[in-house]
Every structure is written in C-alpha cells, then in structure tokens.
C-alpha cells in the first residue's frame, strides 16, 4: 500500500502504514542478511541542497545494506542540477536515472513541490526548520523497540522546546498513540508553543522548568540541545544551561528502565559520563534510524511484497 | 572493435561503431535486467574538474545499472589529484584504480591529452565549449528510437545556433546520414556559423528567423536555450526571446508525429504546457542518455562480446 | 589476529602481522576475482576532513573491488558530522552505519583519538604531517614484490629528508628488517634528522649530497619532491633542485635491477623520459597501494579467515 508514495511529513503515513514499516524494520534487525539483496538493481538519489552528513550517511548506508546503489550530491556547490532549472524539471530528470529520491533543502516546501512533479517516490530529509519525518520514524521505532510499545509511556522532552523541529514532530506523532503523558521540561524562554499543546488532544501533560523534578515519573527522557543563539543575552544562557545538562547525579531518581534519547549531535547537554549508563541509548537510536530507513525504502519501492504486508 | 578505445569527439566513432552502440542500447532498453551484472567487478572513475550534476548522474547511473561501481570527484575543490601534477600522471594513476574514466574539464583538449597517456579508456564528458560526444550519442539514439531511423528526417534546430556546442556536434553527426534536411531557426545575431554549414555537404538546408514558419515541415524540432549574455543589449533579448519560446499555439501546425527534443536543462524556452504533449520527449531523451552511456561503457570495456558484434 | 584492530601508525603492526597482510595482498594480486565478493555486505566510511583524492580513490577502489560499499565525504565543507560534536561522538555514530572507517585529518592525533571511542576499526589515512601508515605498507609491499624480500637491500632516499613524513615512516619500518643499508641523499638544508638516524640501530648508513655518487650501489632509489617553500631563498632552491632531478643520464651508472620508487604525485623531480625505463615502477607502486589496502581491509574486518592465516 506504500508503494510509490512520497514521505514529506510524518502525517503522510497512517498508523497502519507506520506499523507496517516498523514490522519490516524489526524483521531486518533480526536478520539483516536476508535483506542484503532486496534493492539490488535499484538506485537511490540523495539530493542534499544543504549538507547533512549524518542524515545522508544514514540513508546511503540503508540503501547500500539493501543491495541498492547511490547517486547524489552532498552540498549545493557541487550541484549544477538546479542552475536556473525548476525543481519540477530537476526531479523529473532525476527520475530518469534513479528509482527513489531523498531530498534535503534549505527552503520549506521544496520536497513537497518536487513530489508533485516526480515520477519516483520522494522522501523529505529535512526542509529548513519545517519537517524531518525520518527523524520522527527513527524516534518512534526506538521507543517501540526499547519500551515494547509506543503507547503507554510518560515521555519527558527537555531543552529547546520552542524552536526544536524534532520535538514538535515527535509530540505530534506520539499524540496519535494511546495513554501517553507528556512532560515538557524547558526554561520559560524556550517553552513548548501553544499550537503544539493543541495537538495533544486529551493526552495529559505537565510543564516544568526542572529536569530533576520531572525525572522520577519518566519512562522516556528525550534530550535536545539548547542553542546559545536562542537567548537574548549570554548571562541568561550561562545561568540556565546547567539546569538542562544531564549527568549521573540528575539520573539518581530516574526509573531503572527509563530510556535516554537524543537526536544527535550532542554538544554538552548530556555529560559523557552518562554514555556508560545502560539507559543511555542515543547511539543505538542512530542505528535504528538506519534500519527504519531501510524499511521505508523497501516499502516505497514496493519490494517488501507479500512477506511483510 | 571498440574495446579499449577513447571517445573524445563524436567523429572518433565510425557509423558502424555508432550502430553497434545503438543496437546494444536497444537490447538494454528491451531487457535491462539481462545487463545488470555485465560490468560487475569493474570501476568507472568520474573525474569532474567542473561540476555537471546531470552528466555525472547519467554516467554513474549507467555504470551502477550495469553492476559496476564508481569512484570519483564532482568538483575541482575536492580534487587534489592534479595539485601540480600533469594530467598525464593523473590519468596514469587513475588507471591503477579504475577500468574506465569519464572526464569533464573546463579546458578544451584536456580529455584528449589525458587519453594519450591513459592505460584505460577515457570518455570526454565535456571540455569547455568544445566537445560533449555523449550528448550527441544521446540525441542520435533518441532520434533513431522515435523516428525509426536517423536518416530521412527534416530537423529544425532552434535557438542559439551560433554558440551552441550541442547543436554544432549534432549537425555534424547527422550530416553523416542520408536524406537529411536541416532547418536553422535563429535570430540573425545567433545564426549558424558558415563552418558548420560547410559540414553539411550535399544536404539541403534552410535558414529562417521564424519558428512558426518552419514548423509544418519538421520531423524533429530540436530546441535550445538563448542565453541573455549573448546579446549586446537587454532590449534585443527581450524583443527576440518570445519568438523562440515553444508553446501549444506554435505547435498547432506541427506534424502529428514530430518529436520535440531539448538537451536540458530547460529554462523558459519551452512552456511547461508543452510537457503534456505526446510529441514532447525531452525527459525521455535524458533516459536514452543513460542507456546510450550504458552501451558505450560496455563496448569500451570490451564486455559486449559476441552477443552484440 | 588483526580482526577489529586499528591502524594508526606503522608500528601498530608486528612484523608477523605485516607479513600476513602482504601474503594476502600477493594472493589478491594473483587472483583478484577470487576476492571480488569477500567484503560483500560490508561498508567502508571514508572520512576525509582534508581532501586527498589519490588516497581516497585507493581506499575506495580497494573496498569496491572486494565487493564492499562506500559512504563518505571528501572535504571538510561537505561534512556537518563534526559541527560542535566531539570526534568520539562522530566515530561512534559512524559505527552505527559502517563496518570500518578510514580517516584523514589535518590535526595530528585525530585518528588516534577517534580509535579510542570507535566500535569499528579505524585506519589513519594521514593526520597532518604525522603518520600515513598505508603509504608505508604500500612501499613495503612494492619492495617485497620487486626485490623478492624486504631485507637485504641498499636503499637510497633522495630529496627532502628533513620534513618528508613518507621517508621517515619508511626508514623506521625498514629498520625492523635485516641487512639493510640506507643512503640519505639530500642537500645540507634538508638532511635526515638525528632522531630518525637513531631509529636505524645497527644498520649501516651513508649521507651524501650527490645523487650521482650514490647511484651505483643502490638496489632501490626512493625519490621525493623538494618543495620550494623549504628554502630560505629562491636562489638556493634553483641552484640545488637540478642535483635532485632524476633523468636518464643520472641513471647511467645505476644497477640493471635497481627499482625507482616515488610516492606520487611527481612534479618535476623525475624527468618523464625516465617513465619508459623498466626500472621506473612508481605507477605500479600506486597499484600495489590499492592491493595492500584490500588486504588490510579484509584482515581488519576479520574476513581473511583460515584461508590466509
């Protein structure tokens, strides 16, 4: 049912479609060799109009581990594709060479526009501060794998909740599941915006500026970075940032089976001493990101077939 | 007979060699899967001293769809190969790693020079405004596929006929075939140069500045872009450019089975409304570009063997 | 025994480990097809924080000819991996996508630091002026192949012996073998430093400023470039450089079976007339560089197995 579809924003996928992707991702994780030729003879175009090595690597590794191949560019300079050419013409031409395309673009809406003219599936790999749906898929698969289900979790989201695209998309996505509770942990300057709160529907939520207060009830702690540029003055930044740095001391009252997530890259918002804690799963999260992209590519190419309805 | 040869300019290939390449391209188009491992174990080096994403993608997709692999660079900055090194040394070193090389270079003659020192076949993918032989091969295969034969066609070439490398090469190549008629459609400032006319031999030709007048007799309309920079002043450009923009109205008196070609990228010289017209085949042309490069690579590597003499 | 190890500097490998790599390289040279799927399903990450097309091509060709695949970047700009992120976090994330990594970095020690946090083998492909161990492996394999053994050779090293990283590493590596004699051929300004002389142990050595005087006794002549920037003034450079340019005349008194090596790129320190001389093996040296990297990758991935103890 996913064959030939585009993925521009997380809401493009129904809960059932998400479940089909996650089920396939599970199967790949169980037996990656079984899928090592699934995309043989297929080409992925990675069109990065803005550099993002991490995301590009994740998609390229995904395709290559499926036996597929890659053409692409990794930054605008090296691309003459778009020289005066409309994005519609570009994607139609790419469709002559490749079977599926991933697009990262500094302009909001560029991947959406491309998908309207495309003859092949287009995956949005980030358009400005707008959408980054495969990050959300990564987060959902990680939660589903470590917490057994996406439903029935208390999730704390900590850091820059005002501007953080990743957090907004994840909150929207999680609010489609049952029995969730959200705890928004941020300084007043960086609180979660009202329009995201509205997405929660009937789900209960709390707001707090104290990571330590929130800790004991959390099943999931989702850390994000607070960027210095978000503050009016440096004193505020320096005064506040310590409150939102996760270290072993702050974890003392956390649940034993809580998981600590982070979209990476991490700068200093999680102390490296936490890396050894079994609850710290953010590097594995990156690995789940590759697996979920493998499942997504297989589904959009229609190669998952009868094996994984 | 093509094994180990270089392709620096279209004239390097005899009509028979061209025919062998096109016959193989046809076979690949008919059954691409049959050729999906033909180049297994072989490496193509894409040496782009000047960025050209479209051409690079076409070559890379061609090699990957044959089961081969790619090493390469896509712009001069990322290349330290040539740091003070002669192009002869560079290509000899590349020959240690790869089995065939594609070179795009801003300097006329660079691929020719490289081929003289090379131990592997070198394909010119554009050297300055000089030659771009695989574009010509693309055009010939497209004509041959849509018009059944390259011979016996009336072709109209429209746009910048003075500076357009693509047009010059195509005219030279077509004049080697029988029963051609050429119609050169351009403003006086951008007329086809006399030395190209000389290449026509006995072939009949017309010159006109009116696309609409030329239209009714054409079997093939080859559109190219008129670059603003070619005009002495902006008024001339603005006054003239409308005459050479193809839209549905101008197509009213065209033949039913005429084909509309364009080397791409298109800017505004073909209105997007034309894209839906069945005569508009310029995006398929890009696909034929990939297929003809597949056939060329197989032939130069000597892998087409007895199957396609 | 090499499985999972890192290669940061040549001394990381024992003589036995080197021998195992060279033996496998020999087997690959004898029958490359046998190894064309050895790394199938494995990914190499090429992390070039500093461009080096030649070295990157050599590693990529090596991995691709083993049936493996590549993800990577070729210059710092196109990499957002390290944006504020520690090198430890970067390599841990890369380890989620790839099975082995090659790193080139302008800062000394960066690959070493990465290896400490890595979950996959890390190969140093050059860190500043510090180490470049696979160049040394290349040189050793070349000597072993052309001279039957690494031991029992008189080697002349000519050019910039003061700053040349390649020469320093090679001298250290060769001094671990038996019955070597070293002849250091350089102008006084660019003599071999005392701390390298100390590495020689009991091996005999000579110093001379005359390439012609040294020539008759050499089994191996290792040429390197003299960079203009190394001299205080241009007159000295111009006066001296001719003494260290190898041409046919200087080769008149060389042994019949002497081999001429050069790490490439060559600028003008070897006259092109020498290229035809059967003793000139510097382009083959580049090919051996690819083969030794093939063997190294197989060994570090633990895929050489029982076949090549």
UniProtKB/TrEMBL annotation, chains A, B, C:
Binding site for L-aspartate: 83, 165, 225
SUPFAM superfamilies assigned to the protein according to its UniProt record, in alphabetical order: Aspartate/ornithine carbamoyltransferase
Positions of carbamoyl phosphate binding: 54-55, 104, 132, 135, 264-265
Enzyme Commission code: 2.1.3.2
Record-annotated Aspartate/ornithine carbamoyltransferase Asp/Orn-binding domain positions: 155-298
Gene Ontology molecular function, alphabetical: amino acid binding; aspartate carbamoyltransferase activity
Any single biological process term in GO: 'de novo' UMP biosynthetic process
Pathway it works in: Pyrimidine metabolism; UMP biosynthesis via de novo pathway; (S)-dihydroorotate from bicarbonate: step 2/3
Entry keyword annotation includes Transferase: yes
Membrane-spanning ranges: none
All copies of domain Aspartate/ornithine carbamoyltransferase carbamoyl-P binding, residue ranges: 5-144
Subunit text: Heterododecamer (2C3:3R2) of six catalytic PyrB chains organized as two trimers (C3), and six regulatory PyrI chains organized as three dimers (R2).
Role played: Catalyzes the condensation of carbamoyl phosphate and aspartate to form carbamoyl aspartate and inorganic phosphate, the committed step in the de novo pyrimidine nucleotide biosynthesis pathway.
Protein name per Swiss-Prot or TrEMBL: Aspartate carbamoyltransferase
Gene designation per UniProt: pyrB
